[in-house]
Amino acid sequence: MDLNHLISLPVVVIYGILLGLITPYVIGKSDKHGSLVPASIAVISGSGLWLILTLFGLPHSEAPIWLLVMLLTPPITIVAVRIIRKKRTEQDELQLKSL
Fold first, then answer.
1. Which residue, 57, 67, 73, 56, is CA-closest to 17?
2. Element (H, E) at 98
3. pTM of this prediction?
């Protein structure tokens, strides 16, 4: 694997951080998770996608890898945050019932 592919990874990480910072404003703030959870999910999913697509041989200097990462990271982040909220709400309700 050529290490030049990893040079663009910081750009993807910065994109994930920015995406994570605006996600609470897009889907609404919640007290079910911390403020850094959406950002960490976006960074992890974006970086993971980048590395997987790099391993599949997509060149970092062409548009397909950038488009795939930039278009797939937001839905992954939104779905993951909603799943966390739903599970946390269910756990809170179960804990309240047990008290």
1. 73
2. helix 63-98
3. 0.81
